[in-house]
Amino acid sequence: MARAQVSKRLQDVNAFHVMSLMAEAKKLDSLGHSVIHMEMGEPDFSTPKPIIDAGIRALQSGITHYTPTLGLPALREAIADFYLKECQVSVDAEQIIITPGSATALQLVLNLMVSEGQSVAITDPAYPSTHNLVRLFGGHVLQIPVHEDSAWQLTTDILEEYWNESVNAVLLASPSNPTGTIIENSELQKISDFCVSKGTFLLVDEIYHGLVYSNAPRTAAGLNENTFVINSFSKFYGMTGWRVGWIVSPKPYLEDMNKLAQHTFLAAPTPGQYAALAAFEKDTQKILIERRDEFKARRDYLYDALENIGFKMRVKPQGAFYMYADSSAFSDNSFEFARKALQDKHVAFTPGIDFGVSGANQHVRFAYTTSIENLKIGIQRLSEYRDI
Ligand SMILES: Cc1ncc(COP(=O)(O)O)c(C=O)c1O
Predict the structure, then answer these.
(1) What stretch of H or E contains 144?
(2) Using a 6 Å cutoff on CB, does residue 55 contact ligand 1?
(3) For 55-68, what is each residue's pLDDT tens digit?
(4) Are residues 31 and 79 located together in one domain of the fold?
(5) Closest-lying ligand 1 atom to the alpha carbon of residue 102
(6) End position of a domain, from candidates 218, 249, 281
(7) What pTM did the predictor assign?
(8) Does residue 267 sit in the same domain as residue 287?
(9) Cα(127)–Cα(109) distance, rounded to whole angstroms?
(10) Could you tell me the distance, in angstroms and rounded to a whole number, from the CA of residue 266 to the centre of ligand 1?
(11) 127 touches ligand 1 (CB under 6 Å)
(12) Interatomic CA distance for residues 217 and 205, integer angstroms
């Protein structure tokens, strides 16, 4: 039978390159090889018990129906309260929109911001779904190369250099995937003001905000009337599979966001939203902070260890669980390097080409989402790489 035609929009959408490596790694695992997984973008810890218990309680009480489209009112209140207490920022609960993960939050917000022919300014490297979503919505991606000298983040000077009139939104991620670096508070304010002066949106992805190992950066929530923030219970709260994230939307756009949410997903998963209510409890926070300390210890070990075996490490990441390492001493083809390291040394990591084009073949991303013992084995194996 002839294959029916898929939409033209899909032609410019790319799959993650790392998926083929992950499939290969799983195959090696199933054959009994001990693969060291440093490609996984999710915590190795399972969801904290108080959150699981809250989800089970909700299900056992028969709470299985839709919540309101914009989310469970109690959860929206709890998140607004979190901004007030933890970030000293006042946002109304009505500005919090609960979504099925921040992946859906990204879809919703980009759908609001992008019209045919317009552009979204995004760092290169960046989390790849953003580029693909912009293209799906008919927009262009203005990929702006960033380097170690600005901690892989945008600055107003860099933005100005690349600016063109088609830009309708700027997207930042802090801490960033793949670099783990954060944007300085003063620069964040400047970029937000710059976007106001240009009459464009600013979208800040704060999904790794809970995982910062030095002083907590300020949130972009409430910075300006054009600034949207997305966040999620996936990473810091260890709830990747529950699919609960959120948007902090400026008030003038709430009606539009409501329309989009109704037609895009109707409501986020109900058990997940009830479970997430327990994320802010004292017992849960204690577990989460212990886990964050463990991630910090892993970061400190891995950063030095990678440098010692020949990767060039110029900016110590302050957050998330990623390191973007210069692998030019090993190869100038990041996919081939990752494929060979997996096949020959059973060490999995993500090639830079998944995150952009600038320097992408000279960089790879390591995720420290596995124990220090495993990281040590991975480093030992990679240190033999030159002998392959
Ligand atoms: C920067 C960034 N944003 C958004 C997401 C989407 O995460 P989720 O949908 O689980 O909240 C991810 C996932 O890895 C990410 O790294």
Answers:
(1) strand 140-145
(2) no
(3) 999 999 999 999 99
(4) no
(5) 11
(6) 281
(7) 0.96
(8) no
(9) 16
(10) 20
(11) yes
(12) 13
